[in-house]
Amino acid sequence: MPEELKILIVASEAVPFAKTGGLADVTGALPKALAHLGVDVRLILPKYPSKGNFDLTGVNRRIKVPISDRLEPVRVFSGAANGVKAYFIESDKYYDRPELYGDTKGDYKDNAERFTLFSRAVLEALPHLHHWRPDIIHCNDWQSALVPLFLKTVYQDNPFYSSIATLFTIHNLAYQGVFGADNFHLLTGLSKKEIFNINGLEFYGKLNFIKGGLLYADTLSTVSKKYAEEIQTEEYGCGLEGVLISRRDELYGVLNGIDYTDWDPAEDEFISRKFKVGDFEDKEEDKKALLAEVNLPYKKTAPLIGIVSRLAAQKGFDLLAEVIDELMQEDLRIVLLGTGTEADHKLFTEISERHKGKIAVLFKYDNATAHKIYAGSDMFLMPSRYEPCGLGQMISLKYGTIPVVRATGGLADTICEFDHRGRRGNGFVFEDPSGAELLSTIKRALAAYRDKRIWKAMVKRAQSADFSWDRSAKEYLKLYKYAIAKRKRKK
Ligand code: ADP
């Protein structure tokens, strides 16, 4: 019965407690949605310097966590947010720092130690949670990938732990937690001979944390079905395709959801005109307001392409830079909100200077402006080289802003090509990561935009799609039950 299910989600970040990226959105929204389905779900994460008042209380006296050849004292705290209970592992020496993973000089040098301690402390904390023992532990990304490994090795003969199932979710395979082999001593109780080899944590002579999750979790998932397939290939597997192929029968894809309490044009406090499905005039007012704010002239017939993104290589904006001069011969506007390296900023500043009055660029992270771009644009561009799930395309659909995307990962699973005759499709899609393909795809979108009747029909279709967390949470629930049943059979 779902109400009896006890789920512990382990993550290095979760909204509203700590966030550097999309992982925190998922681990914040998923437990909230699961709780609505009536399961007992709790979170556990490191205790970073507090960013809010979460009324934490100590759960126990110090517990001692084995790491290397010593026992490291930590404390467990509990708190809650959005109706979800959360536990925190306190070790000021490791987690009381200004940032989560590193500073401007780079990653913290002791990250292997920090997240080995975290994973081990999660398992050591379990018997101290006032008789609450999870049926399944859901781990996320490399920072908690050692939990399944420890559980299946060091703790497997302990009856308290032996029936606990594990799900490991890959949010972005490019981040694996790779450290020097000299860190192996941190993994107390594991034999280097048994674990440090190609069928274990070794990766080209180094120690690879994410392999702990990929090899030892009962079940694996990633954030779209397409990405689940892609990471089994050399092109997208980041060197781990062999491992993923060996576990392909256990690898599932579950799309992330959108939190529609944050992203709903009918309730959005950031935009100048709220609108519902079919309120085209209000959306046009948002476009005017946005263009005025970024100093671009409004013109009724010129569509506006919005971009809200990190400008990382993954996102494929080099393809746009390649064809921008040809593209800007068309009658259109572009607003870009993003952050990247100095070189990215220079490149796009030069582009905007070459196309004054048609392109505006804003190099900052700004949630309010992001909302205005989703609401005020006609099209939303995501030419990603790879995209495990992607949120931007799902948000823009809700705002009636038609995505133009490359068919990869979650973009391929959520956006299908507009088909004039079949009256189907919610965007414009290209396969080949080339400037020429991007250009011709945007041109297809521009052509469709000129026919107001069919464009409006597509906008309405886009706005009516459901990418809520409720849907994703139901899929996770199925996976949890499956992993638990599998664990029971193995015992
Ligand atoms: P990723 O997690 O790889 O960056 P996603 O598409 O999954 O990409 O999620 C990115 C999220 O961050 C989206 O909600 C997007 O609106 C937001 N975002 C990205 N860059 C900015 C920015 N410069 N300002 C405001 N929001 C941004």
How would you portray this structure in words?
This protein has 491 residues and is an alpha/beta fold. The chain has two domains: 273 residues, Rossmann fold (3-Layer(aba) Sandwich), CATH 3.40.50; 186 residues, Rossmann fold (3-Layer(aba) Sandwich). It is built from 17 helices and 21 strands. The strands form four sheets. Strands 1, 2, 3, 4, 5, 6, 9, 10, 14 and 15 form a ten-stranded mixed sheet that branches. It has a six-stranded parallel sheet with strand order 18-17-16-19-20-21, with helices on both faces. The radius of gyration is 24 Å and the shape is elongated. The two termini are 21 Å apart. Adenosine-5'-diphosphate binds next to strand 16, strand 17, helix 12 and helix 13.
**CATH level 4 superfamily of the largest domain:** Glycogen Phosphorylase B
Stretches with pLDDT under 50, minimum 5 residues: none
Number of strands: 21
Question: For the record, what CATH class of the largest domain applies?
Answer: Alpha Beta
Major sheet details: 10 strands, mixed
- Estimated share of beta-strand residues: 15-25%
- Considering DSSP H and I runs of 4 or more, what fraction of the residues is helical? 25-40%
CATH topology group of the largest domain: Rossmann fold
Shape: elongated
The count of helical stretches stands at 17
- Mean of the pLDDT scores? 95
Task: Give the number of domains.
Answer: 2
Radius of gyration: 24 Å
CATH architecture grouping of the largest domain: 3-Layer(aba) Sandwich
Bound molecules: adenosine-5'-diphosphate
The termini sit apart by 21 Å
Instruction: Quickly give the structural class.
Output: alpha/beta
